[in-house]
Amino acid sequence: MAGYIFSARGEGDGGSSPLRKPREAAPDVAGQSRAFEKLAADYGFSFYLVARFPHGDKSDFLSNHVLSNWPEDLRRRYAAADVFRCSSLVARLKETILPVFSNCCVFSKGEANQNANGLTAVFSQAGLRDTLSFSAHDMRLRHHIIAFSGVKPTITEQEKMELFFRALTLLENHVRQETVLDGPRERLTGREIECLRWSAAGKSSEEIAIILEISSHTVASYLKAAMRKLDSVNRMQAIARACRYRLL
């Protein structure tokens, strides 16, 4: 079954979830982009942006950019300005879970900042004058920003609700396609998962052997197999990758 992804959570050596799509089936990024662009157009907007919330040492725009139909030159200039993490957009969405509509540029830092004034003009000239934005967490608990921009002076509450729900549906579809690729090529057995879980809890091979009522040699064999399947050089790396793949 190499080339397919399993999420092993069952009991016993053969426990695993149902077969997923082939790992080699890449997400249809172009199709997802068209879907977001059509959604924007359905409500009178010309542009959309899907990005992750900036945090820690990953706060710049390009590191958090997921999808958008912004002009390439605008993306480059915005990234070079390095104001995404301190923009009005991020600041406002930290304060509410509701959609926020604005008739001014939310991508800059504010009118008092000279750099912001320049960016405001750039966004306005590009046609990103009015923006509806909101934040959302995906099923992998990642925090996203979704924004629709254009020349649209007003938007009704009904339109906000519809756009919000439809955008969440598209985001979920995007994440599900992305998740198909995010996993080991070969499934891990239930015993391999159990051994990794107890290793993550700080147990030695001898202690795991007592807990699972098997030999320490067998535990070492399970862990070695798990490390190979997770393409890891040691137990700690295997545990980290198993956590990333949500196997633990």
Describe the protein's architecture and organization.
The protein has ten helices and five strands. The chain has helices spanning 29-42, 61-64, 72-81, 88-93, 114-126, 157-181, 190-200, 205-212, 216-229, 235-244, and strands at 47-52, 65-68, 100-102, 130-137, 143-150. A five-stranded antiparallel beta sheet has the order 2-1-5-4-3. Strand 4 (130-137) and strand 5 (143-150) form a beta hairpin. Helix 7 packs across helix 10 (235-244). The two termini are 21 Å apart. The model is unreliable at 1-25 (pLDDT under 50).
Give the spatial strand order of the biggest sheet. Answer: 2-1-5-4-3
Radius of gyration: 23 Å
Extended strand count: 5
Mean pLDDT: 85
Low-pLDDT regions: 1-25
What percentage of amino acids are in beta strands?
Answer: 5-15%
Q: How far apart are the first and last residues' alpha carbons, in Å?
A: 21 Å
How does the overall form come out from the CA principal axes?
A: elongated
Count up the helices: 10
The sequence of SSEs as H and E is HEHEHHEHEEHHHHH
Look at the helices and sheets and give the structural class. alpha+beta
Work out the helicity level.
Answer: 40-55%
Described by strand count, sense and barrel closure, the largest sheet is:
5 strands, antiparallel
Layout of strands and helices, then pairs:
Layout: H1 29-42, E1 47-52, H2 61-64, E2 65-68, H3 72-81, H4 88-93, E3 100-102, H5 114-126, E4 130-137, E5 143-150, H6 157-181, H7 190-200, H8 205-212, H9 216-229, H10 235-244
Antiparallel strand pairs: 1-2, 1-5, 3-4, 4-5
